[in-house]
Amino acid sequence: MAAKADPNKQGWEESEFPILCETCLGDNPYVLMTRQGFGKECKVCSRPFTIFRWLPGAGMRYKKTEICQTCAKLKNVCQTCLLDLQYNLPVQVRDTALNVTNDAPRSEINREYFAQNIEGKISGAESLINYGKADSSGREMLKKLARTEPYYKRNRPHICSFFVKGSCTRGDECPYRHEIPEENELSHQNIKDRYYGTNDPVAKKILNRVKGGNGSNITPPEDKTITSLFITGVEDDIDEADLKGYFYAFGEIKSVVVVHKSRCAFINFATRASAEQAIDKSHSNLNIKEHDLKITWGRPRPTGPKTEVQAATTQNVVLPPLESMQIPAPPGEAPSDFLYPSQDPTYQGSSTKG
Ligand SMILES: [Zn+2]
Ligand SMILES: [Zn+2]
Ligand SMILES: [Zn+2]
């Protein structure tokens, strides 16, 4: 594997092979590389470095190294895509999960000194990132997020800008992809931000997904009639007025119901748009009176007749201890009867009309 090749046997940037992740390398292990000594400036440290170019498989676009080997080794990232070599994740995600402090210097003078100094230190060592030191929850999180298979689609040709404007005349001969582009955040990123793990929109997206639990709770439910949000972690000193005071900014609130016994609350918005905005803006950082609250979508309303709902609520549901109720169960697995929408005093579904 590319990353395992020992580039330290020779001197600075003299190595025969770049430090690459499996995806950037492509699926052909005998890939031909062209090598151009000190061909360009490293996009991180600005020192001239050896550029490698190769075709990572049939129908793919040529790839090249973007940062020097020292910079890659400092952060244990691929020289081309700058993703972590072990987990294939953005530096910001990795460093957040592992609680790694960012000690690579950013200023010009320090960097030159630091880079020279580090050359000696890294020879022999696989990486400066000490994954083992991180607590196990951080490593578990990375394992869950990590892409285990190489993602070769990332090596496809870029999209044809002429095609997008409707003016490509090359037809099948065109080496670029004739597709309408999806919004690709990777292309709008600053390479240094990605390297240093700051302000990386992709990392932020991934981290938000983690904070929000399994993610499906934040995704707006398909049932557009759902306009209520479910809040957990509602401590005794948080009351209706506190919740209203926070949520009114997102739109008209039909009702707020606090159930202190279960440390939860329902916020019912007048419109779906308000609810979507509220969860979008709050799911990763909802803090009221110095309590961290979790927010998810309310449950779908029952569609069956009232009697069915009543039957369901009177079943012998085994109640879990209160502590385990911080995170609501997915729909259909209500841990307690008050979580059924019919138990929500503000619920006004058609089924109550009989
Ligand atoms: Zn560099
Ligand atoms: Zn890569
Ligand atoms: Zn084209």
From TrEMBL:
- Signal peptide range equals none
Example of a GO biological process term: mRNA processing
Span of domain C3H1-type? 154-181
Q: Where is this region: Disordered?
A: 317-354
Zinc fingers (C3H1-type): give the ranges: 154-181
- A Pfam family in this protein? STL11_N
Q: Which GO terms describe its cellular component?
A: Prp19 complex; U2-type catalytic step 1 spliceosome; U2-type catalytic step 2 spliceosome
Protein's cellular compartments: Nucleus
Record InterPro entries: Cwc2/Slt11, Nucleotide-bd_a/b_plait_sf, RBD_domain_sf, RRM_dom, STL11/RBM22-like_N, Torus, Znf_CCCH, Znf_CCCH_sf
What GO molecular function annotations does the UniProt record carry, in alphabetical order?
Answer: pre-mRNA binding; U6 snRNA binding; zinc ion binding
Question: What is the role of the protein in this entry?
Answer: Involved in pre-mRNA splicing. Facilitates the cooperative formation of U2/U6 helix II in association with stem II in the spliceosome. Binds to RNA.
The name this protein goes by in its record:
Pre-mRNA-splicing factor SLT11
The organism of origin for this protein: Rhizophagus irregularis
